[in-house]
Amino acid sequence: MKHQIIVAGKPALAYAKTGTAEYLKRLKRYGSYDLKHIKDGSSEDVSQRLLEGSEGTLRIVMDERGESLNTAQLTKKINAWEMRGVKRASYLIGASDGHTEELRQQADLVWALSPLTLQHELALVVLLEQLYRIATIQRGEPYHR
Ligand SMILES: C[S@@+](CC[C@H](N)C(=O)[O-])C[C@H]1O[C@@H](n2cnc3c(N)ncnc32)[C@H](O)[C@@H]1O
């Protein structure tokens, strides 16, 4: 399965840029993980861009109100999607005002990394670390303990 991560707004925080670059570099060994930044704006505009950008893919909407899953549960879900023949998944990170209800309704999964509201670039780094962790679990490598 190919993974694309779409984030609203340009990268601005130095620590997040470093973390993002580190996990994207690590993920290269494991498959296709593409990061796209889209223009920031109102919740409605950003959600519309996220909807369009993820057209035809499995949609995972990142949102603190979503389902709380541990890493093993997420790994199982990704394995099941791959078994079902899903070719592309999109992980959608919103802007300061969050996602519209319409976008949440169009999601295959609304996933909360935690019940805390995270700055969107920090949410991106946590998401990438989890995707890396899941990729190592799928390969049977010892990163996850
Ligand atoms: C600053 S947050 C937006 C908060 C906004 N007040 C809301 O109601 O959603 C920006 C984006 O970061 C992501 N995000 C923040 N915290 C998250 C969490 N705990 N789990 C998953 N995604 C999160 C979401 O995609 C969110 O749209």
TrEMBL record:
<dbReference type="InterPro" id="IPR029026">
    <property type="entry name" value="tRNA_m1G_MTases_N"/>
</dbReference>
<keyword id="KW-0949">S-adenosyl-L-methionine</keyword>
<keyword id="KW-0963">Cytoplasm</keyword>
<comment type="similarity">
    <text>Belongs to the RNA methyltransferase RlmH family.</text>
</comment>
<comment type="subunit">
    <text>Homodimer.</text>
</comment>
<dbReference type="InterPro" id="IPR003742">
    <property type="entry name" value="RlmH-like"/>
</dbReference>
<protein>
    <recommendedName>
        <fullName>Ribosomal RNA large subunit methyltransferase H</fullName>
        <ecNumber>2.1.1.177</ecNumber>
    </recommendedName>
</protein>
<dbReference type="InterPro" id="IPR029028">
    <property type="entry name" value="Alpha/beta_knot_MTases"/>
</dbReference>
<keyword id="KW-0808">Transferase</keyword>
<dbReference type="Pfam" id="PF02590">
    <property type="entry name" value="SPOUT_MTase"/>
</dbReference>
<feature type="binding site">
    <location>
        <begin position="113"/>
        <end position="118"/>
    </location>
    <ligand>
        <name>S-adenosyl-L-methionine</name>
    </ligand>
</feature>
<keyword id="KW-0698">rRNA processing</keyword>
<keyword id="KW-0489">Methyltransferase</keyword>
<dbReference type="GO" id="GO:0005737">
    <property type="term" value="C:cytoplasm"/>
</dbReference>
<feature type="binding site">
    <location>
        <position position="94"/>
    </location>
    <ligand>
        <name>S-adenosyl-L-methionine</name>
    </ligand>
</feature>
<comment type="function">
    <text>Specifically methylates the pseudouridine at position 1915 (m3Psi1915) in 23S rRNA.</text>
</comment>
<dbReference type="GO" id="GO:0070038">
    <property type="term" value="F:rRNA (pseudouridine-N3-)-methyltransferase activity"/>
</dbReference>
